[in-house]
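Project standup — Tuesday

K.O.: blocked on the structure for the chain from last sprint. Re-posting the sequence here as requested.
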Amino acid sequence: MASFRRASVCDNSAVKSASTLYFRSHLDDAGHGVCDFVDFIVKGSDRVPHEGRLNQILAFTVIASVNLANLASLILLVSLLLTQGKTVAGPELLFSSVSIWTTNVIVFALWFWELDSGGPDERVFHAEHCPPDFLFPQMTSSHFPDTWKPSFIDYFYLAFTNATAFSPTDTMPVSPKAKLLMLCQSAISIITITLTAARA
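H.V.: unblocked you, prediction finished:
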């Protein structure tokens, strides 16, 4: 009986260690990913005019890859909580959830930046031929010139507010693809926050 209890304690310790290792590994990977994204954003926000379709496709590929990796991390987190929820430490869950949520905000900010009105190049040089996918308040305000164009910080703010309010705030999606993007981001954010709150 004593040996059985020792074995049970050892098994629980092993499971807890495995879950802790998973969360710390995920947090480290997320940290490196955020650094890479910051570098990508700084370079991507200062685009060369007429950069070409190939560069935009490359940007789509990078964003989609990180988006899928972050979604896979969320699925793994859900699976781990459903199967070994009692062994997951609170701080590890919190750190992992924050990294997933933060990556979600950055990824969708980049989606909004790249897809609105055909992309940053189109918005600057062919704005009259590209209807907007998002209606920013500056576009309808008399206090801003008609030539006003959103910068990356506007899309980052849009992604942040959508991830916290789960709905549009001051900027409205006007095209189907914009509405679908915001829907997907809100769904990921709701699942991440709900998991953390339920475990707490």
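K.O.: great, moving the ticket to review. The radius of gyration is 21 Å. Helices lie at 2-44, 53-84, 90-115, 120-125, 152-165, 176-199.
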